[in-house]
Amino acid sequence: MQDIINSVKTTHELSKPEIVELLKNGGDELFKAADEVRKQYVGDEVHLRALIEFSNICRCNCKYCGLRCDNKNIERYRLSKEEIVDLAKKAYSYGYRTVVMQSGEDMYFTAELLAEIIKEIKLASDVAITLSIGERSFEEYKILKSAGADRFLLRIETTDKDLYKSLHPNMDFENRKRCLRDLKELGYEVGTGCLVGLKGQSLEALADDILFFKEIGADMIGIGPFIPHKNTPLGQDEGGSFELALKVMAITRLLMPDINIPATTAMETLNPNGRLIALQSGANVVMPNATEGDYRRKYEIYPGKICINDSPAKCRNCIERKINSIGRTVSTSKGFRRPLTPPTFRGDVADKKIEDVIENILPLPTGEDKGGNYENL
């Protein structure tokens, strides 16, 4: 076990059997290694992302999600354009430099309407904008990118095709992957991730998920333990474990050392110190809720969400105190990924064109040499 961990700390490569072995038997030594790699590649700063949950209306019927369209026991809401922009302005005033606009797949919010909102936020506040709004067409993603969206979060949830199909009625696994490819092509920083602890999910399937994250060159990975919601078909299932979700996150850090990984609120739902433990096991991002009032309660993807009665200002101050308590600091930057080495091309998807990476590190040659050979740089 220790030999595998020592090797991956320097090579950032693991075989599928090695990942399964770490998922089975990894413990404190795994988490310590992930924390060391995190410190080496992305430092001690923690990036805060202000989460704005602007609609809990969803056209999808995912069997694990409390927002599923067949759930009749949920109070639906939809924020106005003015409310969303106002929340983003307030988040900026609290010191956030990224806002995450998250919703169910609410098609009232067309690409054109979302583009208006993005432009207004960008005009009023110097923030990066992450979208988490589900599956759209290439053209819609293009409109949103042109309006100023910087990042997009679309979790694959599971790469086990049969499990994916059983959990997502009337959805297509290949279309999900198409969305991720489109987002990469359009130049977004792309986030994805998985649920951990689903009934019928094997350790081999989780290993495939981790390898998939590396294969597509994702920039952000969100790992969440499955928490059953009583108003869903999976409401009586056992649910996932905090420790297994932490292992998936730590292994992901070892394989992808320079990406952004959030300490998810779902982890803190299962463990009162979940986010701090995650930050000490490879994570470097926290996404406090910047939504106001009763909307926090109504956006119930899973039960037992933390901080639903707190104000955004209180959440901001609270999380900074917690981060400082473990010797870490809150970043004042927008927290874009900064690859330290040129990415490896994998299939038809790459992190970025190698020329783009080099341009961000070294000035381009001028004169006769412009556009020349990069091999000697």
- Whole-number tally of structural domains: 1
- Specify the helix fraction band: 40-55%
Structural class: alpha/beta
CATH class: Alpha Beta
Fourth CATH level, the homologous superfamily: Aldolase class I
| Straight-line N-to-C gap | 38 Å
Q: Low-confidence spans: pLDDT under 50, at least 5 residues?
A: 342-377
CATH architecture classification? Alpha-Beta Barrel
The number of helices is 15
- Main sheet: strand order: 2-3-4-5-6-7
What's the order of the H and E elements?
Answer: HHHEEHEHEHEHHEHEHHHEHHEH
Strands, count: 9
Stated plainly, the CATH topology is called: TIM Barrel
Largest sheet: 6 strands, parallel
Walk me through the structure.
The protein has one domain (2-363): Alpha-Beta Barrel (TIM Barrel). It contains 15 helices and 9 strands. Residues 342-377 have low confidence and may be disordered. It has a 6-stranded parallel beta sheet. It has a 3-stranded parallel beta sheet with strand order 8-1-9, covered by helices on one side. It is of the alpha/beta class and 377 residues long. Helix content is 42%, strand content 11%. The radius of gyration is 20 Å and the shape is globular. The protein has helices spanning 2-11, 16-25, 28-42, 81-93, 111-124, 138-147, 161-167, 173-185, 203-215, 242-255, 265-270, 274-279, 295-298, 312-325, 354-361; strands spanning 45-48, 50-55, 98-103, 128-132, 151-153, 189-196, 220-225, 285-286, 329-330. The two termini are 38 Å apart. Helix 4 packs parallel to helix 5 (111-124) and helix 9 runs parallel beside helix 10 (242-255).
